[in-house]
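Translate sequence into structure tokens.
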Amino acid sequence: MSAPLERSSSVATGTSYSTDIDKEKGEARHLDIPEPIEEVDESNNVGYAAYKEGLNHEEITPAQNRTIRWRIDLVILPIFLITQTLQFLDKTALNYANLFGFQKELGLVGNQFNWLGAMVYFGYALAQYPAQILIGKYPAQKVLAAAVFIWGFTVLTMVWCKNFQTAMVNRFFLGMFEAFVSPCLTIMTGWWYTRQELPLRQFLWYSGLGWGGLIGSYMSTGISNISDNYPGPAKWKYIFYILGSVTMAWSVVVFFALPDSPASARFLNPEYRILAVRRVAGNQIGIKNRKFKKEQILVAATDPKIIILFISVFAAAIPNGVLSNFSSVIIKDMGFSTTKTTVLKSVGDIIQIVALVVGGIITLNVKNSRLMAATLANTICVVSAACMAYLPSHLVWQRLVCFWLVNCQSVGFSVGLVMVSSNMGGYTHRTIASAVIFTAYCFGNVAGPFVVKQSEAPRYPSATAGLLAGYSVKLICQITLFIYMFISNKRRNQKYGAPDMAKSMEAGMQDKTEWENKDFRYVL
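Result follows.
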């Protein structure tokens, strides 16, 4: 492992909690130009050359910063949002196909449908770390576009599956190529946005889960109105024909519209590319490094944050597995028709979107509020799950409202992803952290479908117990993580004094971990 950085003798120019150039107060922060800490391999350190050039450039003004951010929002954010929406739609297509005789046509028996819901996560777990390595090593847009096209084709071919075995193979490969989405977008968000901007943007593109649920619900409503006597494919096949075709077409947009990094963004002029890199240098974790650093494996293996996030995400993913694959069935078993079920499910999706937007706005405007927002959202989930478990069966609408409210859980998961993209230095360290978290996500989602037992309809006590237990463990983990990072910041201030922002930015752009960078402070 590289030797820890020596502290700079220059006067501190600010703290890691206020790294954004514009707090919209019209002031530009001056940073001392640090001496290089060590010789840097610029061919592997993406954006470092632009960062060094930017140090000799005039200070970025608030107006320039707003312009750059606005252009990134117009190009990058829609690509991330639509890709995430399609990924969620395609992954949960079984949820809708299940309403139109999918199980009967494939001859599924026992818990075979549960296994189809779970199988996608085996492929996901296997491929998601190699996916992040490929995104870092090769042009991101080419890697992501290829994955999107292949998973779209995989969705389309589900209509050719005739039995449980062929459907299992299809779902496994679907998981492998969908693994290029959420883990990679999490890493890539930190390439484009500053620490202050990052949570809101992460929440916005992750709201694709809610948008996907809305689109899926109303798509199913339309399909349900097709006459059973209408000539053509079975109703459930329309879902896969539509989603597979749209996803394959979208891959072309990703290939041509998504840049690899701010340093190569065609929608920015040369000056703004340099300034865009300079903006994210303030995150103190760099952009990406094409070289795999073995020494950062040990850093990741001993990082308490990763362990806490693993437990938190695993616990929360069990309820997510229930919601993703069985929400329509659970609502329908409360006594609603197929058409009404799809409409009622969409209310939960709207709540998910609203919760993510509100959470993002809070974290944007309230200092160090990320984990507090996650804790608040998760408290709502715990109370709602408890009410679902213990309210009498005849209080159908009250139980349904509680089921809608557990969709607030996405805020907590999104905050976990933000912890990776804003609080972990070293690209190899960061990708391992993301891989561990999404592995936990996969394991939890594999377990989730098996707590839903059709024999327990309409109350599903095992499922509601799984929701309550998962959200309770997640709540404890979020509080623990907040305490750990708060104490770590206090200790660093006591031991090293006020952080030197210029030194910390240089260390981040040189791909140093937060333990090597003594001027790094966690954002809460």
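Note: Confidence is low (pLDDT under 50) at residues 1-33.
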